[in-house]
Amino acid sequence: MSNPSDRTLVIIPTFNEKENLPLIIGRVRDAEPDRVDVLVVDDNSPDGTGELADEMAAADGHINVLHRAGKGGLCGAYIAGFRWGLDAGYDVICEMDADGSHAPEQLHLLLEQVDAGADLVIGSRYVKGGKTVNWPWTRWVLSKGGNLYISLALGAGLSDMTAGYRAYRRGLIEQFNLDELSNAGYIFQVDLAWRAVQADADIREVPITFTERVIGESKLDGSFVKDSLLVVTKWGLAHRRSQAKGLVASLKKKLGR
Questions:
Q1: pLDDT at 198
Q2: What are residue 86's phi and psi, to 5 degrees?
Q3: What is the average pLDDT value for the chain, to the nearest integer?
Q4: What are the two backbone dihedrals, phi and then psi, of residue 135, each rounded to the nearest 5 degrees?
Q5: Are 166 and 95 a contacting pair, CB within 8 Å?
Q6: Is the distance from CB of 179 to CB of 219 less than 8 angstroms?
Q7: What are the residue boundaries of the Glycosyltransferase 2-like domain, all occurrences included (predicted)?
Q8: Cα separation of 66 and 13, whole Å?
Q9: What digits encode the pLDDT tens for the residues 119-134?
Q10: Is 19 helix (H, G, I), strand (E, B) or coil?
Q11: Which domain holds residue 67?
Q12: Percent of the chain scored above 70 by pLDDT?
């Protein structure tokens, strides 16, 4: 009997990741040599990442490459990857960073939950057993505090809605209007998780170890606080208003008015 994870695609977006790319793909292939394919989505990296990805794809049928014309951002890269994966017929589509912060050796934890019925599995830093490695305490406080605020504002009940290590069933992605996804900083990860919550999807979090990159520079900036939390606040207020209107309508119906 086959499982959904038997047809899994891991999307790895890249921009100037020439040194990291062979390392992360090698780890994915070692960890999941049979059921997982890789799609590198490269944003015309000037350091030659795209050309290297093409060479690796030519040598290994489990590796694919999608070239984009310019630096279009992480959200755009994943949307392009989702569409490519859906068109190619994959049953499970995963997100994974190129810099090694997401351990391919833990991918099985996500896929096992998809096979057990989950629609979305989030590799979480903030559930029991999850942790971060080599992060300055200021960044941990910012991320942990931000996720706590997001969960409270939306009432989502999730610990790590900004996490970028994920596995989706194709049926869930097919429910999303990918053109509507927000691209304010890293808020699109929250947007995807929030849409899954609103769709009553089966969402599960599994503990992972997030390791700060060793090679290259982080592309994370202060937009998480400046943009993302403002957008989430607006979503939360709209959600509460919708809940209140629904409650009023239900009470009027019960009272026969």
A1: 92
A2: -65, -45
A3: 88
A4: -95, 140
A5: yes
A6: no
A7: 10-175
A8: 9
A9: 999 999 999 999 999 9
A10: coil
A11: 4-254
A12: 82
Considering only CA atoms, which of 114, 215, 103 is closest in space to residue 169? 114
Cα–Cα distance measured from residue 94 to residue 8, given in angstroms and rounded to the nearest whole number = 7
Count the helix, strand and coil residues of the chain and give each as a percent rounded to the nearest 5: 45, 15, 35
Number of neighbours of residue 177 by Cβ within 10 angstroms? 7
Beta bridge partners of 123: 206
Backbone phi, then psi, for 102, in 5-degree steps?
Answer: -105, 120
pLDDT at residue 236 above 80?
no
Angle at 217 between CA 107 and CA 93, to 5 degrees: 25
Amino acid at 216: G
Q: Residue 127 in contact with residue 42, Cβ under 8 Å? A: no
Pick the closest to residue 113 from 105, 100, 123 (CA basis): 123
CATH of residue 171's domain is 3.90.550.10
CA 102, 103, 109, 111 torsion: positive or negative? positive
Number of domains, the chain: 1
Tell which residue, 108, 89, 109, has the closest CA to residue 33: 108
**Is 217 buried (19+), middle (13-18) or exposed (0-12) by CB count in 10 A?**
exposed
* pLDDT tens figures, 57-90: 999 999 999 999 988 889 999 999 999 999 999 9
DSSP H or E run through 105: none
Separation between Cα atoms, residue 174 and residue 70, nearest integer Å:
26
In angstroms, the CA 75 to CA 164 distance is 11
Which residues touch 37 (CB under 8 Å, ≥6 apart)?
8, 9, 10, 62, 63, 64, 90
- What Rg value do the Cα atoms of the chain yield, rounded? 19
Highest mean pLDDT: which range of 24-38, 69-83, 217-231: 24-38
- CA geometry: angle 208, 216, 70, nearest 5 deg: 100
